[in-house]
Amino acid sequence: MCRQPTISVIIPVFNGERFLAEAIDSVLAQTLPPDEIIVVDDGSTDGTGDVVAALAVIASVRIHTISQENQGPAAARNRGADSASGDLIAFLDADDLWLPDKTAHQVATLAAYPEAGAAWGDAYEFAGDSLVEALATGKHSVPSPQFLLQSMLFRRATLDVVGPFNPDLRIGEDVDWLLRAMEQGVRFVLHRHPVVYYRRHGANLTSDRDAAHRQFYALIKRSLDRRRAAGMKPGKQPSPFIVTTR
Prior knowledge:
Layout: E1 7-13, H1 20-28, E2 36-42, H2 48-58, E3 62-68, H3 73-83, E4 88-91, E5 97-98, H4 102-112, E6 118-127, H5 131-137, E7 144-145, E8 152-155, H6 156-162, H7 173-183, E9 188-200, H8 209-229, E10 241-244
Parallel strand pairs: 1-2, 1-4, 2-3, 6-9, 9-10
Antiparallel strand pairs: 4-8, 5-9, 6-7, 6-8
Helix pairs in contact: 7-8
């Protein structure tokens, strides 16, 4: 009988007391709970630490906090990944929410596709403070594939091969990492199953769409330049995506 892989969840947060408890609760409510939750407090000045401390006392999953001076989300994710003990690693932003079967579905998906370095699910998008209200009023998107770390589950070996997130990037560090992973031949299994609610609100780092788009195109250009320098010809590499409807 195969051993069930262990799962670490990393939540980077800066001044996230407004939504953090709800995010952690969505992890604790998983039908396949993780083995640990690592909250990386990136220099918060609000009550973030108190929120984590209160939940850690009553949670059925081990929650521990790493505190550091503010260095941005990439550095926070790297710190969490370095401390994680799981075979599988997941990231969740402090203002987003997982659907209850996120980990269970993606663990099963990775087991079915051993050649994939990560499973990648669909996301709902909603605006405002209350998911309940958004669901009741229909103020949310249909599930769709999006470039979101929080909709993915990674094999630890994949993170080790690709390397850390670029701490110099405050926007687009996730896109940069994914492009580097594709350059190195990492494959992703895309399953059309919603796994995360992505919250849009005024404090989102990516709420400045123009800046995010400029950064995205700059990162694409850097990736293309690296591919050319490595002699990788367009259209000659296999697709990094395995698509499944499961």
